[in-house]
What we know:
The protein is of the alpha/beta class. The chain has one domain: 3-Layer(aba) Sandwich (Rossmann fold). The strands form four sheets. Strands 5, 6, 9, 10, 11 and 12 form a six-stranded parallel beta sheet that branches. A three-stranded antiparallel beta sheet has the order 3-4-13, with no helix packed on it. α1 crosses α2. It is globular, with a radius of gyration of 17 Å. The mean pLDDT is 92.
Amino acid sequence: MVSPELLTPYPVELAGVVRHLPRVEIAPGVVIAILNILGDTELTEAVARALVERLPAEAEMLITAEAKSIPLAYAMSVKSGLPYAVLRKSRKPYMTGAISAEVISITTGKPQTLWMDGRDIARVQGKKILFVDDVISTGSTYEGAKKIIEKAGGQVVAAAAIMTEGDNPAWKDIISLGNLPVWLESSE
């Protein structure tokens, strides 16, 4: 059982916007703060603007995975003028020539498959890609996206996320607006 103080909202300020994120126990004794931008236009617009200011000049296209980061990729596309594509978490009947990679998300805790529609492969081929996500926690979705992008003939030049999560030295290479801690409580 996690102590009640670990389940109180966690305050963050992102691009001048303050939010109090709910903390959720995702495994026994492991608590994370949940950032969910779906429906939060004010936050989405602010963080998109801040991330676009930090985009690498060579980026030619944005790619994200569904679902929570789609509004972010859209807003960044509008602000930067770069096109974007979405990797789906299930293969849809309309997809032809789709390619895939398996990932394990911290929020679902089980394997998922990311899919790129064959029509997006032609858009990605030969392009320098910026991967966009709301939160990069384990890096699994990012690694899966890189595999798909490379299969499609694109090159990932960087990754951008509103926030990274946890202590991972690799996060220094992610364009982000902050880092969320992971709280561990012993079962003593």
